[in-house]
Amino acid sequence: MFTEKNIQQIKNHGLSEAKVTRQLEIFKEGIPFANVVEPASADNGIAVFSETEQRHFASLFEAEKDKLDLLKFVPASGAATRMFKFLHQFLESYDFENEDIDAFLQKEENKNLKIFFDSIDQFAFSSLVKEKLEAKFPDFENFEKGKHYYFFVKEMLKETGLNFSNTPKGLVPFHKYGENYVTAFGEQLYEAAFYATSKGIANLHFTVSAEHEEKFKIRYEEIQETVDNNTGVKFNISYSFQKKETDTVAATLENNPFLDENGDLVFRPSGHGALLENLNEVDADIVFIKNIDNVVSQNYVETIAFQKKVLAGKLLSLQKKIFGFVEKLHAANPSDLSAGAEEVLKNASDFISRELFIKNTPIYKEEILKILERPIRVCGVVENTGAPGGGPFLIKDKNGNLSYQIVEMSQIDTNNTRQKTLVDRATHFNPVDLVCGLRNYKGEKYDLLQFSDPDAGFISNKSYHGKPIKALEMPGLWNGAMANWNTVFVEVPLITFNPVKTVNDLLNPVHQPQ
């Protein structure tokens, strides 16, 4: 199937010929869809806490956190390109010399552009763009409106200007306080000081693209003194890259290897599921996971931090019970059928059913230990607002086992009427708000790669230099990659979910500092 040149290319990528062959077989076989039994809902797979319960869990975490190794893990490799999609289209389609800008902006397809230009001074980066333009064009403020807007956008996006198109999303100015702008990266640091701090130190790990690592380090040097002074916390920051050997080969629409114009195989990053390797290399008692762009301006941070403490406190509460059961079960003599040993088994089985929401409740010691000795995560989920993305569902696997999982829409066969009906009934979705326990009752780190479901990936249609290709995505970090963890869903308020998918999202109140 492969030329000598291709085989060498595979080796250079850290892959084996067998592994790439298997990937191509998956394109031919297809990946089975998830089998949704029902959507999780309030008090049916999703815990809803009263204010008293929330305060209890937050206090529990506060009391314990200085005894723990804490880490905030932030996937941050995404470029900002998609944030500015409609602005790129503006540069391609608007002719400032021959078109009236007001008439152009009145078109229905340009409504996002109109919002952007009507609110241009509310963006944290506006003054940076204007400074650059005024240095290049002293009469910039006197440009006709259409030309003014065109040059503003060009200066923002292009390499000759601020080059936001090729900037990591984490380093785009999101918020402005007085004369200072703060990026999503900076806000992640500030926020970490409020909940991911133990003994005055906040550990953060960012997964970034290799070519962007230096930019993050330079930005940290620029803001370190300010963020240290504002928080009273010392920051310990580490970085990693998505590993080349987690890339997958691209295929033609006929499921053959896709070759570029030089006859080379084309490899693609296999989605955020590849970050399981990165997560597996960090070592902490508790790891908070959230995406780089899900931040708020600083006047909302304490609200966000409280919700993180609630999730972490719930995790500690569950772990305490799990570790207690595991210790007793390991200590019990296998032949011991005393009333005390029987009671531990029964209580552990009840706990698995009641608090871990596992439907196929085990009754034997080995089965119970197999469930309890797994990584655990508490996932904040928010009420459905119609935002795209995965959500919590009860799933039946190929062996008939039932478990609650985060499932992406691409994993569900929406051509199946019954499955689509169940998806349409979903009440909550996944904002990527996870608190994870990665160590066992002895304090030893789990090998997370042992708890992934390799069948939970998906195939997507992409393009390469204008040609259609098929791409293979690995099981997502918070769905298939964590499929065999113990998972508890907790309802959190919508204010915890504030992603910046397009630049206009920065106009939302939580991104406008008061």
TrEMBL record:
InterPro entries: DUF4301, Nucleotide-diphossugar_trans. GO terms for molecular function: kinase activity. Signal peptide: none annotated. It comes from the Bacteria. Keywords: Kinase, Transferase. Residues 3-512 form the DUF4301 domain. Pfam families: DUF4301. It comes from Aequorivita aquimaris. This is NAD metabolism ATPase/kinase.
